[in-house]
Amino acid sequence: QVQVVESGGGLVQPGGSLRLSCAASGSIVRINSMGWYRQAPGKERELVAACTSGGSTNYADSVKGRFTISRDNAQNTVYLQMNSLKPEDTAVYYCKTHVVVTTRGLRYEYAYWGQGTQVTVSS
Length: 123
What we know:
four-stranded antiparallel beta sheet, elongated
């Protein structure tokens, strides 16, 4: 059983900053990629940023230069530092982790999602 819990959302004014955290816990052998997605009302869920276990990152064009993803492998945690926030960044932000678990002696990779955290950018 694996749990994924996000925190750090809230209301912020345009130009402000927020830091999201996502921690995975449970029967984890290894975590491969970890990433953040977001979904605004009436829109599809989209990738914001992702980070491999080796530290390689990729970002949506809309957040490059403003958002930074980082992870603490020892703590199974991924962070998203969001600076220079814009109203169009308003969305529910979800953490997605690709976790390797052991089932009946064999290793499998599954994707787990967090419950989501609301980020609202408004004056």
